[in-house]
Each structure stands twice: as structure tokens, then as C-alpha cells.
Specification:
Mean pLDDT of chain A: 96
Radius of gyration of chain A: 24 Å
Helix content of chain A: 25-40%
Number of helices of chain A: 19
Shape of chain A: globular
Strand order of the largest sheet of chain A: 15-12-14-13-17-18-16
Oligomer: homodimer
Structural class of chain A: alpha+beta
Number of strands of chain A: 18
Chain lengths: 556, 556
């Protein structure tokens, strides 16, 4: 036993936990209306593990021996389960493929090093053997950053960082913590919280992603407005590469030419194995509030978010859902009874009397952190802006609910897949001046794609992660697959339309999900051919034989 | 006439403006005591231009013809004055060399393109001719980033960006401005201010540096606590490279792998010619105050700055001078008379009665910006922290003075050189937990270096640019050169001791002055051998023949 826990081989999260439609009376009619799916139909469970065709490992004995020498026999695994778990991340494409028994190439071996010395040995052994090395954190990636190339003829080693899971020390004066790269989100926070600190980094994948994975994919957490993106948070790194162990010392800022720190962040395993980061940490805030607001429509909500970003206020979270996502939120709520039912009904009546079209309602969450005075000052600024844009505050109840449930959303994809429906996400970031354009065109592009493949589809969106000059738009889309067509091709048609719309209207291919293989076709359109050439130059300098997670970021 | 104005060929700033010692009665005794220099001695003016030995241009006729074709005859200069102006930046080493008639290699030609198309033509022409190309902004660089290699056998073209000096447009919703790279600081602000905006970027070199130069050297302005470093401010860039014109679109954040934006920022001409940036701009603040404080000693001042950085307050400036720099500030003040004299004397008496050792006094400036409420909230938080560390507020007078005079400091180096004294600066950044260590050891290292070369020397320091995890320490050092020794060698002994101390105690080789040739010997110690190899990979990918400002950043 390695002591490292993994997610379900076939889906998101912990075995035994699933999306629960019970006691959500509005859900079934909502889903039927949105995508024509009847939730009362009998679900088809995923394929059984025994029915998978797992290719046998192609592992030379000498390589196996060297790996055992490097990390110990207990930590070298070639069994089918461990190899399948390390084959894919958790993108919709991954879930579809594994359910469809599509496993053209799985890693030949999984190793679990205990420390940086063992990582160095594995890197050296892989190099000597001419093998491919793919670093693996929590396995939550949804951009295709983890899979071996289908036609890879070399031996493939998946290097699981799960045993390197400790906060090594906290520098209280500098507010910096040294953390091993394999530490999962909850373990980071538990170890920091015990000493009164937080990293403040809470991506949707938090429960099942690691600090090294965050660094390798340019992750961003839902409180990034206050704590920054991972690229801001991580000040120092240690990275084991074939020729070097590159050490970026923790510095608040520096003028040492092109930023090597910013090359390693986002490198998705192509520049070596990140073994340790030094990250900014903060004292746990005295107060923390998530306030909910309602806006009459999306444009007025967007305008309010923009104005908050330009104001003196510094909230920790700014988030607004479009009308569709707001409708979805209401549909997934538990049945309200008693007083709360009357409050909700009364509120809706009030809004109608105000002249609002309830079908256009947009729900927003703004988070505040700090001293009581700071929180109330920021809230006063935000409230004034909300009022100017005709929004209204509806208290902290919905925000508390959101805060508790925020990590559960990914479970819904497996629930839908059991019922033949595809649900997925695509996100971008763009300047404030172009967000409405990105939004309008992306919604239209998704609908056109649904028409093209002849399905009834759904698309919804929220804005989150505000910056001075723009914000992230996060789209969720869903449809019932047409069984007469190739499932992957249908998915590609929709996904492609959305990604191309991002690029065509001033957005990036991804704000925080990374490039991998899923988004690499848009890389050149995003950063231009010269940018791709520069990136290739770094990859070639570190890894001329393309042995480190090849095929990711830059398309082949 | 090109319409582009340059600094003095022999020194800092505008011809006719110089440091003025008059009406500063405390200055002469202070300087005599600090470095043993008698200010009443007769100064030696710099060498006359006619006495310089300027090498003749080595410019093939075909190259000259092609350059004329590219930018027009008016904008191709081979006269000695223009070539000398474009040979060096304004480091102390540069000033010493030009006064000593040391000009081993000057550019063969200076060209002034009017737009990106002309830059493209110049880059193509240079490539065809196998010539070296060195982009030139305001010429204020003090890290040796501008000079041709002494042994350069190829033709050297200095590409002066001075004609590309306009703010092209302001995106009010996104708070982004497109600005041509050759625009000088005052021109940036004048054009932005006219429409109610500011970039908020005010480096010491502001008057004589350009937005392209800021990008190329990772500049940081004195209000970086609020507005960010230039790497935060610049969201998009256009860069003309041999094979590509790389375009980084303005994005608030993105997850497109290793950051190409962060490779171009800090590239010091080695990755091509930055022609345009898209930068964050802000509405001019309603209120702006710089408040002065006094602390009993450096450690308590440092502790207060650290606590301010960790607090809910978000000041625009945090700055504190050590006792020596505080003494220097007082010595360079105009003679106070009447009421203000009595106020100052009264204050000092009050502090002595409080038990303060006045020789340890540290002067601090904290800047506040925003609405009246925001400013007073932030000030309340800071005042409480200052009080906790036994500091006292002394009003806004000294801050106003500092604000008005902040760009005049570099003039003093020429004043000192006329009198045989060397004055220079070295700056670093380090985590809060190591700043005292960096400080103590750097002061000791400078003093040991003075002893080694047998001179009476002075070193003083301030902290500025606070971040969550650390801050910048900015050292100024001065001594009277021993005429029996090589002036450059003496300087190297002192400079080397200071730089090595930075690295040895957790600091970086430079916080915002860049690498160039001055700091490149410490690059590998700062970012490790692997980091240097990655950087070299980017340089080689863009410029395999090392024609773009060769010899900078990575030592040869």
C-alpha cells in the first residue's frame, strides 16, 4: 500500500459519493425542459472494471529494476487498476473514453517517490532508459494534460507525487510556506490552519488537486480576487529536470530578465517535476462573509462587477451567474418549506412588482474578508454600486450554501453520463470591454453547434475572478448525446465552437484549466506563432528528446 | 532633426540642470564627515566632447542604403554625437568611462523608426546584413544593458524608439491603454492625465525612461504598492522579432502554459524590439497624500513596514530610510528659517526627551490614494501600527517635498564626479524575514570593501516597494576615489561586495534595475544553472546568431 488515495477510476471524487437528485423537486422538470432528459428513466452505470481492455505493460526488466532501486518495491506499481487510474484526468472526454473502453495507451508503470532525492533518481532512470515521464498530482486535470500519447512507443512512467504531502515550514515574518508538491488542497489547508494560516487558494478541484498540479496548470481559486492566482501566490519552486534541479528562490519581486519562475508555472510536466513550492500564506481572516445579490439582468450585473473592480473595495470573491445559471441554481435547491418558502415567494413577488422579468434574474455572490471595519467598508462601497445598477442584497444565506457546496459540482457530470447526457465546462478571461461580446457570441456559438449536431442543448455562464482589466467567464454546457452519432465527435463540435468564440472575441483559450491537449489547437491563435516558438525553445532546452510529458501545450 | 531629445552625453538629465548645493548649509560639513570630501575645492568639469576619441563608424554602404530605405535619410545618423549618446546608459561605470575617454566600441549608426512597419524593416535589414541591433529607449539604464560588446566585429545599429511616443487609445471599460514603446514617462502621463487617467508608474528614472524600456528591464515605480510592478501593469505587448512579430493580446489572466508575456518582459532587447504595450491605467485618484513618520531606529521601522504589508491597509507608497539616509535627507534640506526652524528644533528636543538617540532616527513616507474615506481608513490602520512600533507622524510637509524632488536625485552623481567622488546605487528584494540580515551584511560588506581599497566610504539605505512576502532594499554608496588606483577596479570591489551580499543572504541581484552586464555575473547564483539554461533556450530560439543586443543578461 502506498497510502496515496485516488479518485474513482471512472469518475469524479470519492467512491460512494455522488450527485443526489432527491429532495430537489424542481430539478427533473428543469432538466426535461433544458435538454429533454427524463430523469426518471433508468440510468446505465459505467462499465465494469473487469470489462476494460487494459493493454499489458511494456516495461523492460532493467527499467523496472532501476525504478525499484530508486523508490523501493512497494512504490512501483504495474497492476491494471493503478495504471488505469493514471491514464486520464477527469475531463468529459476522459469520462466518455473510459466508459467506452477506449484505452489505447496506459502508463506502463506508476511510481510513488517519497522525496526529491527519489524524484531525481526516477528522472535519471527514465532518461537512461529513454522512457517518457508524466508527473501526476491529484488527477483532476480536465485539459488532457495527463494522458500518454496514443502512439507512444517508449515506456511510459507515471510519477505520482502523492507521498510528498507535507507543509515543510511556515516563515511567519515573510508569510511564506514551503509545501511539498504532492500535497492535496485539504491537506494544505489543514496543516496551515492548525497554525492559524491559510493559502486562500480554493479552485473547484480543491478536494482532489495538489499544490504542484496548481503550479503546473496555472490554477486560480475562487478567492483569487484577494489571494491572487497561483502564479501570484507561488514565489519559489524546486523543479527536478534532466540536467538540473532548478531552484527559484522565494522573492517578492525581481528583475532577473525573462521570468524563469513564470516559465515553470504552467509547464504541465514538460519542464520537469515540480517537487516543492514556496507559497504566500495569510493569517486566517477575522471575518469572512459571502453576501448574495440579485440583478435584473446580465448586462447590469456585468456592469456592477466591472465597477466594483475599479473601486476602492477589495472583495475576496466577485461572482455573478447569468439567467440560465441562476435558474439552474434555483432548480438544484432543496425544497424550501415553512418560513423560507414564504420569504422566497415574497421576494419573487416583490421583484415582479418592481417590474423585473424573473426569467432574466442574475444571482451574484460577493465575498468580504478582514477586520469587521474593513468588511463593512468594502460592503458599503459594493452596496452603493449594486444599488446604482438596480441590484438588491438578499443576505448571507445563499452565500453560505454556495460556500458549503462549491466543491460538489463536478459530481453532476457522472450523474448525467449515467443518463446519456453530456455536461462540461469551458472558461476564458477577457478585458471588461469585451466580456459581453464574448458572452453573446459564445452562447450563440454553442446553440449553433447544438443545431448542427441536432440536439437540444443548454448553456449557462458565470463571471468569477475579477481583475483590474477584466474577468473570467465560466461556461457550463449540456446536451443529451445523439446515440446515432459518434459521441466524441458531437462533443468536439460543441467544444470547438465555444473555444473558437473565446479566441475570436478577445478571450484566452483558458483562464485556469490549462492547455494540455484539449486546448492546444488554439495556442497559436492565443499567443501568436512567435510565442509558440519561444515556448518550444524552452522545452527543447530542457528536454531535447521530448521525454517529459510530450504532446502537451504545443500541438504536434 | 529627428525631434527626439536625449540626455547629456556625459551625464544625467537635461543640459543646464544640475544638482545645486547652494542654500544647503548642512551639506558641506555632512559630506566632509561622511567621505572626507571638501566641497569648497574646485571641481573638475567632465571631458570636452572634442577630446573624445570616437571610433569611426564601420558601416557597409549597402547597410546604410538599406537603413535609409527603411526609415528615410533624416532618420539615419552616423555623426559622432549621436553615436556617443547611444553607446552607454547612465550607470556610474558609464559616467566614469565617458569622462575617462573610454569608448572601445560605439554603435556604427543610429536609426529612428516612426512606426512598427519601419521597425520591422530595420530588423530585416539588420538580419540580412548580419548586423547587431540594440533597441534604445530613454537611455537611462544603469545596468549596462545598452552598450555594444567591446570586441563586436559586426556592424552595430542602435534603434532609437523616440519617435514612437504616443498613447494610441484608452479602453475606458477595461482600464487599458495602448502605448507606443518609445513614449517617455512624462509623455505617458501627460497624454493619460488629459483624459483623467494615470498609469501610476513612477520609477526614479521617470523623466528620462520609456514605457518600452520599463517593460524590457522589469521596472518598478515608487507607487508599486498600489499600481504593481511593470510586469503586473503591462497586459499585452507587440514585439518585432527576426522570424515573427509576436503579439501578446491584453488579458487580465490566462493559463496558456509557460508565460510568454513574462519572457518578453525583462528581455532587455535580446528577444526583439518591443514596439507597443497595452497597460493598465487608473482613474486619477480623488485624494493623494504622502504622510511622513519618524521611527526611533531601523529595526522598529522595518517591523512596522512588515506589519503594514500584512494588514488590511493598501497604501500606494511604503518607504523608510535608515539612519544614514535620514541624516543625508536632513543635510540636503534648504536652510529652515522662522517658524519651521523652531518646529524642527522643537521636534528634535521632544524626541530626545522621549529617550530617542537622534543619530538612529529613521524617516518614513507612507502614501495613500483613493476616496477620502479610503484614505482615512488606511491611515487609521497605519497610524495604529506606527504607534505600536513607537513611531510618530510628522505631517504631510516632508512628503510633499519628497514628492516634488524625487526625480532629481540622479543629478548628484555628476556633481560628485566633478569633485572626484563616486556615488552609486544597488538594490535588491528579499523576504521580510531576511531584510534585516540583508541590510546588516550589506552595510558590513560595503564597509569591508572601503577598507580593502583604503577609502572613507558611506552607505545608506531605504526600504521601498512592499509586497505580501517582502520588500525592496535600495542602497546608495559613495566614496572619494583613490587616484593612485584604477577607478573602475575600486568601484568593482565595492559593487561586487554589495551584490554578493544580496545573493548570500536571500536577496535577488536586482529588484528593478535589471541584469544587463552589470549584474549578469550573479544570474546563475540567483536563478540557478537550470534557470539560466531555460533562458538561453528562449534566446537561442528567437535569435540563434546572437544579433539582438548580445552579451546582456547571461554572461559570456
Amino acid at each position: 500500500m502506498t497510502g496515496v488515495k485516488h479518485m474513482k477510476w471512472w469518475g469524479w471524487g470519492v467512491e460512494g459519493v455522488a450527485f443526489n437528485p432527491d429532495n430537489k423537486p424542481k430539478l427533473a422538470p428543469f432538466v426535461l425542459d433544458a435538454v429533454g432528459l427524463d430523469l426518471s428513466s433508468t440510468p446505465t452505470p459505467p462499465i465494469s472494471f473487469d470489462d476494460l481492455d487494459v493493454p499489458a505493460p511494456q516495461l523492460p526488466n532493467s527499467l523496472q529494476d532501476d525504478l525499484v532501486e530508486a523508490v523501493g518495491e512497494t512504490y512501483v506499481h504495474t497492476d491494471d487498476m493503478d495504471r488505469v487510474v493514471h491514464t486520464y484526468g477527469k475531463s468529459l472526454r476522459d469520462l466518455i473514453r473510459i466508459r467506452a473502453n477506449i484505452l489505447p495507451r496506459v502508463p506502463d508503470v506508476v511510481v510513488y517517490p517519497s522525496d526529491e532525492d527519489q524524484v531525481r533518481k526516477v528522472v535519471d532512470v527514465a532518461r537512461k532508459a529513454g522512457a517518457v515521464l508524466i508527473p501526476f498530482g491529484g488527477g483532476s486535470n480536465i485539459s488532457g494534460s495527463l494522458e500518454p500519447r496514443a502512439n507512444e512507443s517508449r515506456a511510459v512512467i507515471s510519477l505520482d507525487m502523492g507521498r510528498m504531502n507535507r507543509v515543510l515550514d511556515i516563515d511567519e515574518d515573510a508569510q511564506l510556506a514551503r509545501i511539498q508538491a504532492g500535497t492535496l488542497g485539504p491537506d494544505v489547508e489543514e496543516q496551515l490552519n492548525a497554525q492559524g494560516w491559510t493559502m486562500g487558494h480554493f479552485p473547484d478541484s480543491f478536494t482532489h488537486s495538489t499544490v504542484g498540479g496548481w503550479a503546473a496548470t496555472r490554477s486560480s481559486g475562487m478567492q483569487s480576487d484577494k489571494y491572487g492566482d497561483i502564479a501570484d501566490i507561488i514565489r519559489g519552486l524546486r523543479v527536478v529536470q534532466p540536467d538540473h534541479t532548478t531552484v527559484i528562490r522565494p522573492l517578492p519581486s525581481t528583475a532577473t530578465g525573462p521570468s524563469v519562475r513564470e516559465m515553470l508555472i504552467g509547464s504541465e510536466g514538460r519542464l520537469g517535476v515540480i517537487t516543492e513550492v514556496t507559497a504566500q500564506v495569510h493569517r486566517l481572516p477575522e471575518h469572512r462573509v459571502i453576501q448574495a445579490y440579485l440583478f435584473a439582468d446580465w448586462p447590469s450585473g456585468l456592469a456592477a462587477m466591472r465597477e466594483i473592480a475599479a473601486s476602492d473595495a477589495s472583495p475576496s470573491v466577485t461572482r455573478i451567474s447569468d439567467a440560465n445559471e441562476t435558474g439552474f441554481s434555483f432548480a438544484t435547491q432543496k425544497e424550501s418549506t415553512g418560513a423560507s418558502k414564504y420569504v422566497t415567494e415574497g421576494l419573487m413577488k416583490f421583484l415582479e412588482l418592481r417590474g423585473w422579468d424573473l426569467s432574466q434574474l442574475c444571482l451574484s455572490f460577493i465575498g468580504y474578508e478582514g477586520s469587521k471595519t474593513h468588511v463593512s467598508m468594502d460592503k458599503a462601497i459594493v452596496d452603493k454600486i449594486v444599488k446604482k445598477h438596480k441590484g438588491i442584497g438578499i443576505g448571507t444565506g445563499p452565500g453560505q450554501m454556495y460556500d458549503q457546496k462549491k466543491f460538489d459540482t463536478p459530481y453532476i457530470r457522472d450523474f448525467l453520463l449515467d443518463r446519456g447526457a453530456m455536461g462540461d465546462v469551458s472558461e476564458t478571461a477577457a478585458p471588461w470591454s469585451r466580456l459581453q461580446e464574448v458572452y453573446d457570441n459564445t452562447v450563440a456559438a454553442a446553440r449553433a453547434a447544438y443545431d448542427q449536431i441536432g440536439v437540444k442543448g443548454w448553456v449557462m455562464c458565470h463571471l468569477s475572478h475579477s481583475y483590474h482589466s477584466g474577468a473570467c467567464l465560466y461556461f457550463t454546457f449540456a446536451y443529451v448525446a445523439d446515440e446515432q452519432q459518434d459521441t466524441i465527435e458531437q462533443y468536439d463540435t460543441v467544444k470547438r465552437a465555444i473555444q473558437q468564440s473565446f479566441i475570436d472575441h478577445g478571450g484566452t483559450l483558458s483562464h485556469h484549466h490549462a492547455v494540455g491537449t484539449e486546448h492546444s489547437p488554439w495556442l497559436e491563435q492565443d499567443i501568436s506563432a512567435g510565442g509558440v516558438a519561444m515556448m518550444q525553445g524552452v522545452f527543447d532546452a530542457v528536454d531535447p528528446k521530448a521525454s517529459l510529458n510530450p504532446g502537451k501545450i504545443i500541438p504536434e
